[in-house]
Design brief:
Order of helices and strands: EHEHEHEEHEEHEE
Low-confidence stretches: none
Largest sheet: 7 strands, mixed
Strand content: 15-25%
Number of strands: 9
Strand order of the largest sheet: 3-2-1-4-5-6-7
CATH architecture of the largest domain: 3-Layer(aba) Sandwich
CATH class of the largest domain: Alpha Beta
CATH superfamily of the largest domain: Formyl transferase, N-terminal domain
Distance between the termini: 10 Å
Shape: globular
Number of domains: 2
């Protein structure tokens, strides 16, 4: 199996990026990270990505005349690097999806979509909302990206309990443990050509015998 060429988009500390990179290094994910794009020049993930020797580029809104120009640049970089799969890893902007990348952009969200998704629902905002709603179960969702925040078809979900004494931080830690399992699994399914996207539904095909 030819390794996937990954493009990873970040805005923060790069934990998800590093989880994926570590999985690749352990031989658990059949891929290489060919490009990292950060929406913030001073994001902690930029330093981590540079330390790993990745090609890192900055797509800060203030560096472009308008958002169209910024998104055009990102898409151009992805094409230049011949990216097979784009991963949003704590990327806090709406990714503008060009036709040639439909079905090739994934996001991971720290809740069980469609609950607790949408614009502004990220990080501690999500976990706080889960706690305030009195939920007993949370988790994460990996989904294909469409033209709206957190609305693309779900690929897979993993759950974890919400405990009576949970804080935003303790719940976030437990959810991230599930994210570290779910995102690599979704990438492996994509690499094995086991995902079929049909409008608003994703079907996971059975694994062929002998593979």
């Amino acid at each position: 199996m030819k390794p996937l060429h990954l493009g990873v988009l970040i805005s923060g500390g790069g934990r998800t990026l590093m989880n994926i990179a570590d999985g690749i290094d352990r031989g658990e994910i059949p891929a290489t990270i060919e490009l990292v794009v950060s929406s913030r020049r001073n994001a902690g993930g930029v330093e981590k990505a540079n330390a790993r020797g990745f090609d890192v580029r900055i797509a800060s809104k203030k560096d472009f005349p308008n958002e169209d120009a910024m998104h055009s640049a990102i898409t151009s970089w992805l094409r230049e690097k011949q990216i097979d799969l784009v991963l949003l890893a704590g990327y806090l902007r709406l990714f503008r999806l060009s036709d040639d990348f439909r079905g090739r952009v994934m996001n991971i969200h720290p809740a069980l979509l469609p609950d607790f998704g949408g614009h502004g629902m990220h990080g501690e905002h999500v976990h706080r909302s889960v706690l305030r709603a009195g939920k007993t179960v949370s988790g994460c969702t990996v989904h294909f990206v469409d033209d709206e925040y957190d609305r693309g078809p779900n690929i897979l979900q993993r759950t974890c309990p919400v405990l009576p004494n949970d804080t935003d931080e303790t719940l976030a830690s437990r959810v991230f443990e599930q994210e570290c399992i779910a995102y690599p699994e979704a990438i492996r399914l994509f690499a094995a050509d086991r995902l079929r996207l049909e409008r608003t539904r994703v079907t996971i095909l059975p694994q062929h015998s002998g593979t």
